[in-house]
Amino acid sequence: MADNQSFDPKKAEAFAGSLMDTLNKSSLCLMISIGHRSGLFDVMSMLDRSTSSEIAAKSNLNERYVREWLGAMVTGGVIDYFPETKTYHLPSEHAAFLIRAAGADNIAVFSQYIPLLGGVEDDILKCFKEGGGVPYSKFKRFHEVMAEDSGQSVLSVLDSHILSVIPGLTDKLKSGIKVLDAGCGSGKIINKLGLMFPKSHFTGIDISEEVIEKAKKEASSCGLKNTEFIIKDLSDFDQTAPDEIYDLITTFDAIHDQGKPLNVLKGIYKALKKDGVYLMQDISGTSHLEEDINHPIGTFLYTISCMHCMTVSLAQDGEGLGAMWGEEVTKDYLTKAGFKNIVTNKLAHDIQNNWYVVTK
Question: For the domain that residue 28 is a member of, what is the CATH number?
Answer without folding.
Answer: 1.10.10.10
